[in-house]
Specification:
Blueprint (H helix, E strand, L loop, with lengths): L7 E4 L4 E8 L5 E7 L4 E7 L5 E7 L3 E7 L7 E2 L11 E7 L2 E6 L2 E5 L7 E2 L5 E7 L4 H4 L2 E7 L4 E7 L7 E4 L6 E5 L7 E4 L16
Antiparallel strand pairs: 1-2, 2-3, 4-5, 5-6, 6-7, 8-9, 9-10, 10-11, 12-13, 13-14, 14-15, 16-17
Length: 208
């Protein structure tokens, strides 16, 4: 029986975020604490039962990073002054005062509990991000998983300075890296896969 709590659930069919708290005992129970937070939401991370973040898109406003300090009952937009190329956010993870957000255009980070965000250097198109070990060694170590075609890498972008810079590691996959788990510095797990490409239909016959 797990003693950890699960803080988020996403209903992509309706493009709505539904956050729930799980009371984990011998049988789990759920209750909805908030809904309609974002138009599209692709990530959620709580550092304790009260403080957490979510990242997604607000209809008509663009990308958004939101913070809760009351267990998901309410969320407040974080201050992001420069999104750069990060127009489609993909995931978010937090440890301590550090927050890292991935997107199709790279990563952004906060080292002050979401008060400000800045562009990261050295990563790329990362689909997911997780801190390394139980707490990222105090919020310093994060690992993002994705594909980095400019450097011909499918694998992991690894940061030891709270997301400021990333170094790429090729996992030698033959398909797109998607998600990762990083229980320690020495042990990493990466999953990969992509939709098969349907061959284009043959051109119609031409009459002479």
């Amino acid at each position: 029986v797990s003693t950890q709590s699960t803080w988020g659930d996403i209903s992509m069919a309706k493009l709505l975020l539904v956050l729930a708290l799980a009371a984990v005992a011998y049988a789990a129970s759920w209750r909805i604490v908030n809904h309609n937070i974002a138009t599209i939401d692709l990530g959620v991370s709580f550092i304790n039962p009260n403080v957490g973040y979510t990242a997604g898109t607000m209809n008509g406003q663009g990308p958004a990073i939101l913070k809760s300090v009351d267990g998901g009952v309410t969320f407040t937009p974080c201050n992001v002054t420069n999104w750069g190329a990060d127009l489609l956010l993909l995931d978010i993870d937090a440890a301590g005062e550090s927050v890292v957000v991935t997107s199709i255009g790279g990563e952004i980070y906060s080292s002050d509990g979401g008060k400000s965000f800045h562009q990261s250097v050295g990563g790329g198109q990362s689909q997911s991000v997780r801190h390394v070990g139980p707490n990222g060694e105090g919020g310093h170590k994060f690992a993002a998983t994705g594909e980095y075609p400019l450097r011909h890498v499918e694998g992991v972008a690894y940061s030891v300075n709270s997301g400021k810079t990333f170094q790429l590691y090729d996992s030698k996959l033959y398909t797109a890296a998607r998600y990762g788990a990083f229980p320690s510095d020495a042990t990493w797990y990466v999953s990969a896969g992509e939709w098969p490409e349907t061959p284009s239909p043959p051109p119609p016959p031409q009459s002479i």
